[in-house]
Amino acid sequence: MKGVHFPVTAVALLVLAVATLLASASDPSPLQDFCVAINNTDSAVFVNGKFCKNPKLASANDFFSDKLRYPGNTSNPVGSIVTAANVDDIPGLNTLGISFARVDFAPNGLNPPHTHPRATEILIVLEGSLYVGFVTSNGDGNRLFTKVLYKGDVFVFPIGLIHFQLNVGKTNALAIAGLSSQNPGVITIANAVFGSNPPINPDVLAKAFQVDDNVVAYLQKQFWYNNS
Prior knowledge:
alpha+beta, five-stranded antiparallel sheet, 4 helices, 17% helix
């Protein structure tokens, strides 16, 4: 049986297509040991959203933060507070693709349904017990995955999916989240839909949620607390 011969140009195009696919499958890797973010643009290079400090001027403090050491104030309407430690707090995170957050919960405190457009989240419970979950995309039927977590338990929330955490214990709860982006972003669903600036046309929301205009008007008049 004779072998099949492909034109050199066709093989080259195929290799290029595969390489392009692989290259776009994840965030690009940094081409240096680190790129400490800096606001002063003198003698700096713009890399992935932030300017880089001269590496020879970097110090240990560029890679340090004590923000997560301190409990957050949960005296708010949702009973939780998120303390983020991202590239804005730790300049050395720039281009490294990771950040952290501390989440404090009062009893019955809720980290409301939200999404991180640029990051997968992994959560570990340090104190208390949490009811957590996420909802899959429309194409997957909007399936709900939930679990009650206890001290030491870990749960993963896939990138971009709506998720939440609720304190189901009788005491305060504490969790630490790792996120796969130096700046994961957060969109709290209720805040974005009913508290946008300027407000979304009530007709749009009444049609989308299949409710009366008065219900939409009531919700848009509420104060939507941002706990992060």
